[in-house]
Amino acid sequence: NTVMAAQMTDAHRRFLQVLMSHGIMEGSEARKLHRRCCEIHKVYYAHDKLDDFISTINSHLQPLFMQIRKGMSEGDGRAHYALVNLAETEITKMASDYTENELELFRKTMDLIILSDNGFASSTDILNLADQLKTKKMKKKEAEQVLKVFVEDKWLSEKNGEYTLHTRCIIEMEQYILSNYQDTARKCNICHSLAIQSQVCESCGIGMHLPCVRKYFRAQTEPRCPQCNDFWSLDIP
């Protein structure tokens, strides 16, 4: 049976192709795609076996230093799947798509987002950096265009003039961020993945994603920190 499971079929290949063209997919979309691929290619389908289906693909992607990774949207807590390149750090991978000063703007934007209290950077703050770039200064209009492209390419998300890292970016860059921002980047105390938008305990400093905060405190009459047991004084989303 295990031998069967490990074989790549046309259903697996189709799934991979579609995911590659999207870059990232929400969990419910990935489940629909899983079913569709199995039906089209008449491959055994089990609705609760998506993760097994993906690990078969991953075992074949290993020699290519690629991997399909599962992550969570920090906004609503939904699962997402993204195709990740393991061979290079993501900033170098981005280098083939962007100019040096665009990359510098992205790095500086990332600094602002990760060092902020809430995981967001305002467009005003980002645009103020545009004429301070070391590689080549950018005009504000030009910088606005570049930010638009970062949003279209799913590196950044924007809401009411506030920018944060896109789910795809977090899934792809988790290792890069954890090793390059060791003093500030933190993992969520509940799901143990990188938390950019998070609430932080005022007593012990642990962080939790907003969806994880919501889930964790749902069952508690009095919200207390899972780490130090002090009263959680922040508003529960």
TrEMBL record:
Q: What's the Enzyme Commission number for this chain?
A: 2.3.2.27
The record's Gene Ontology biological-process terms are:
double-strand break repair via homologous recombination
Catalysis performed (reactions): S-ubiquitinyl-[E2 ubiquitin-conjugating enzyme]-L-cysteine + [acceptor protein]-L-lysine = [E2 ubiquitin-conjugating enzyme]-L-cysteine + N(6)-ubiquitinyl-[acceptor protein]-L-lysine
> Which compartments is it annotated to reside in?
Chromosome, Telomere; Nucleus
The record's InterPro entries line, in alphabetical order, gives: Nse1, Nse1_RING_C4HC3-type, WH-like_DNA-bd_sf, Znf_RING, Znf_RING/FYVE/PHD
Q: Coiled-coil stretches, from where to where?
A: none
Q: Which intervals hold domain RING-type? A: 188-229
Which keywords has UniProt assigned to this entry?
Chromosome, DNA damage, DNA recombination, DNA repair, Metal-binding, Nucleus, Telomere, Transferase, Ubl conjugation pathway, Zinc, Zinc-finger
Q: What would be one Gene Ontology cellular-component term for the protein?
A: Smc5-Smc6 complex
Q: What class of enzyme is it?
A: transferase
Molecular function per GO: ubiquitin protein ligase activity; zinc ion binding
- Please give the function described in this protein's UniProt entry: RING-type zinc finger-containing E3 ubiquitin ligase that assembles with melanoma antigen protein (MAGE) to catalyze the direct transfer of ubiquitin from E2 ubiquitin-conjugating enzyme to a specific substrate. Involved in maintenance of genome integrity, DNA damage response and DNA repair.
**Which PANTHER family does this entry report, sorted A to Z?**
NON-SMC ELEMENT 1-RELATED (PTHR20973), NON-STRUCTURAL MAINTENANCE OF CHROMOSOMES ELEMENT 1 HOMOLOG (PTHR20973:SF0)
Q: Which family is it part of?
A: Belongs to the NSE1 family.
Q: How does it assemble?
A: Component of the Smc5-Smc6 complex.
Protein name per the record = Non-structural maintenance of chromosomes element 1 homolog
Gene from which this protein is expressed: Nsmce1
